[in-house]
Amino acid sequence: MPIPEEVTGDEIDKDVRQELQSLPKTLAEDVARNLVMVARLLDEDPESAYGYSRVALRLASRVAAVREAAGFAAYANQKYSEALAEFRAARRMTGSVELWPVMADCERGLGRPEKALDMAGTPEVHKLDKAGQVEMRLVAAGARRDMGQLDAAIVTLQSPELASNSVQPWTARLRYAYADALLAAGREQEAREWFAKAVESDRDGSTDASDRLAELDGVDFVDALDEDEDEAGESRGTTSGDEAESDGRG
Hints:
Largest sheet: none
Order of helices and strands: HHHHHHHHHHHHHH
Oligomer: single chain
């Protein structure tokens, strides 16, 4: 797959670069450039990111960072079985529990929410950092919802992190998930309050909390272009009517 000339491979994380030092220099550069493309395209063009990840995997399947990147690319394309296999491989290589929440979410994607809940109750969760523990809580709540256990999902999300007034990278998503669970349970007023709190903490627009809040408030957003087209159509309709009326009189 083509890679822009300006992509050198030096853009990758220092720790990943260190992992790649076990490879011959030219090969390491090729792998690094493909990993840069995976990172760049993962959100906006996951299909292309997946393609670059497969190239990197073909070149260096024994590098943990490559297996992890391949896992995230597969995950972004909803290839959950493949993603889970790659995450497991990366975990075997590093011994790290960092990928535990996304591995559990793959189990959800495969239609096994019970397995995701089992993973949420293992000792590995206690080894996660705060961000990882919050992520695990989100996955567990999602698993509860998959099983139709709305009240349990709400309780799962109730935590010191949810109650805290400090804004962390995970705050908006946690508040949003809580609001969404409340709404699903028919607790609309409480849901509105938490969507509003999610909006306050969503500094990078990672959720559509503002749209959900507007929807609850009965606000409709009309695209300006659509509005102009409607007005133009009405104008054309009036003209046609006048001409028809004139023809009839004649």
